[in-house]
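A reminder before we start the practical. When you read a complex entry, don't treat the lines as separate problems. The point of joint prediction is that each chain is placed relative to the others, so the output describes one connected object in space. Small molecules and nucleic acid strands, if listed, are placed in the same frame. In the example below there are two entries. Take a minute to note the order of the lines before looking further.
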Amino acid sequence: MLGLKKHDLSLLIIVAILTMAAPFLLNPFPTESGMAQFNAGYPDLMQKFVIFGIFAIGFNILFGLTGYLSFGHAAFLGVGSYACVWMFKLLGYNVLPGILLSIVVSGLFALLIGVITLRRSGIYFSILTLAFAQMSFALAYSVLSNPKFNLTNGETGLQVYADDPQWFHSDRLPDLPHLFGLSMRATHRMELGAWEFQFNVGYYMCAVIMLLCFYLAIRIFRSPFGLMLRAVKSNQQRMNYTGLNSRPYTLAAFVISGMYAGLAGGLLSAVDPLAGAERMQWTASGEVVLMTILGGAGTLIGPVLGAGLIKYFENIFSKINESVLHGWFGFLPDGLEDFVITLVYPFVGKGWHLTLGVIFMLVVIFLPGGLVEGGQRIGRLFRGKKPSGAAKSATTEPAE
Amino acid sequence: MTKPTLSRRGVLKTGAAAGVGLALPTYLSAASHSGFTNAPQGDTVTLGFNVPQSGPYADEGADELRAYQLAVEHLNGEGDGGMMNTFSSQVLEGNGIMGKKVEYVTGDTQTKSDAARASAKSMIEKDGAVMITGGSSSGVAIAVQGLCQEAGVIFMSGLTHSNDTTGKDKKANGFRHFFNGYMSGAALAPVLAAQYGEDRKAYHLTADYTWGWTQQESIAAATEALGWTTVENVLTPLAATDFSSYIAPVLNSGADVLVLNHYGGNMVNSLTNAVQFGLREKMVDGKQFEIVVPLFSRLMARGAGENVKGILGSTNWHWSLQDEASQAFVKSFGTKYGFPPSQAAHTCYVQTLLYADAVARAGSFNPCAVVEALEGFEFDGLGNGPTLYRAEDHQCFKDVLVVRGKENPTSEFDLLEVVEVTPRAQVEYAPDHPMFAGGNLGQCNPGA
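Here is the predicted structure of the whole assembly.
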């Protein structure tokens, strides 16, 4: 069905079920309980999960398949965001033109950068992309935000003002991004006993788009084109010696993955109409590399898992402060309580980077294939089977 | 490829799906009209403290968080009450806000607009915060202020000094107690003219982003009005850590004053470089070369060490002030944490109290009622003398301190001395002043 093999189809269906039921799955704890701290089922974070999922899926098409490690992918994310907000400013708050333009603009931008940077491979390619991304960041942060030609609004971030043209805006429509009148912010809260679940329009729009992106990624992975990309990764030199020009393939992969990033950027603006230059900073580019490696580079579902894990840490662990810890460990005797809190405190709150770093190290050392490999090992443990050749070929080899 | 065929069942299915799709907007919007966003339930109210805990302003953020915790204690009737006792409005009783115990959630802005907005959104959507406050840079303040306007909660900004926060980016749901670039210029210029003379030639190094520009524009305008000339304004990248290449041209420019429109780590580095180049010992046409840092903070002064001695700048508040309110605040902060508060801590503490007081006076947590209570509110006893929350742009008007790096500090906190308290009248401006024009406060938004 849908041109997919059974294995891929079941993966797609599982992902579809997970994303559609996310408001339930991510809110396992009752609202008033102490564990509610760990609930992730609120609109903003769920939107981030799927949007950064798209970003990572796109990055994986380049990195996972061709092995070209781009360190400047955030530039496309940023360009997409700016394009989308400009559509809001000029046309009105309907998200469709913005999202479409963000894909087109980032595609063109990727083409321009790809033509230049893909002349080199390996570390040189990485450094070139990094340089371009930092150039874009500097342009967005200060150069293109001067009062005479203000394209990005600099530090403050591009946003919609009341006196912007918004040619197609009317009073009947919401004063926030919407899809034909359906506000991205509209949320239905469902209370079920002690639980509360939130169903948000913006989230479901992003989730549907992510499923489409995921489907497209599967098709690319399984296509002859995808096979070519894998050939580039395994031995580009040998490919060139056979008389085949591999550049068009890598360029196509680069542009596709840039468009994915642009789409993610456009969606970020669609659910929250402000585009800041930090989206282009090298830390943002590094983040998507982490997501992909953490989840499992070269696998289909890995990048989405990695994106989810990092965003979860950033938003949930960073909010555990000292008073929350005192709440948890209050049952212990005073001296012991303080001792335990001193031990735990550096790893939560502002120390969430530290915890993430530790997890990243553990994954890279013990699970080189990322979380996906972890899942496979657990699965094997339960089935009590030794890894067979057949099982191996069904999954994609992780990037080294 | 399969050929599309039109079956009766298909048509019915599509029709039903389209019907549900069209009915959804009415259903969702109908579900969401219940007064205002995050109306406090039960006997507690949740405030969101969104401060930088990592990144360049983490020090300020940590101090802000201390101040917030202190404010919550005082509001809930614990501790010695601090400035609640000296506050001219005596509505707060130490039983929380309107009898509801104050609880809080914290988040990390990372001094990035995106992270700050994500953190604020999680406070609003998940934790039910009815007010967001904090932040240590103008970009973040403006980004979060915009978000709070859209979401329908009140934003009480922390440390933000750019003119734009209450200028072109002002919002009805946002309020600023901190002073701004224009006020710095207006307060500092007369002191500079008095101390250094009126025929000075200034060379500006400016951090290349919104705050730097507005700060430079403000201080250049204020000093030029008093007879100074601006020789050159050089923009420096925000990420710069070594300013040697920017300082060298100053030596031969003929300028006799260097103005460093830098903040945080930038300022620490540029000032250190300038001193290393011997600018402070330099004589130009028989005049002593001087360095000026328009926005000073104690945390920055500590970073720059010896180099700040004798340098003039402006600040919102300083712990050495002798009025009763400042003393009360320094005492309760010092008792709890063992050292005096910074200006960032002060403004955050005051903002929390002002919000609580406005809710109590309005008798409601509804953002629109709070906005009404804060607009045009005159108060005293919070460390800055008589202060007005102007209705037109939600900016506080109060005295501004001109400070100087102390020559003989007695402790690691005693780094600045107050040179002059510039009266409020001197730093006031019209709401439609060109440096603040272009914004629109809009309508207060109570949200859902």
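Discuss with your neighbour: Chain B touches chain A through 51 residues (CB under 8 Å). What might explain this?
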